[in-house]
Amino acid sequence: MAKQRAQWSGHLGFILAAAGSAIGLGNLWKFPYITFENNGGAFVLVYLAAITVVGVPIMVAEVLLGRKSQRNAVGAFRVLAQGKPGGRAWLGVGFLGVMTGFIILSYYCVIAGWTLRYILMAVSGELGDLAYHPEALESFFGGFLGNPLEQILYHCVFMGATVGVVFFGVGKGIERAAKILMPVLFAILVVLVVYSISTPGFRQAMAFLFRPNFHELTTGSVLEALGHSFFTLSLGMGAMLTYGSYMRKRDSIPRAAVTICALDTLIAIMACVIMFSIIFSFDFEVTKSSSILFTTLPVVFFKLPGGHVISALFYLLVSFAALSSTISLLEVVSSYAIDEFGWARRRATLTMGAAILAFGVLSAISLGGHAALSNINLIGRPSTAGVFGTLDYLASNWFLPVGGLLIALFTGWILTRDECRQELEEGHGPMGWAYPAWRFLIKFAAPAAVGAIIVSVILGAEYQ
Ligand code: TRP
Question: Which residues line ligand 1 (CB under 6 A)?
Answer without folding.
Answer: 21-22, 24-27, 104, 231-232, 234, 237, 239, 325, 328-329, 400
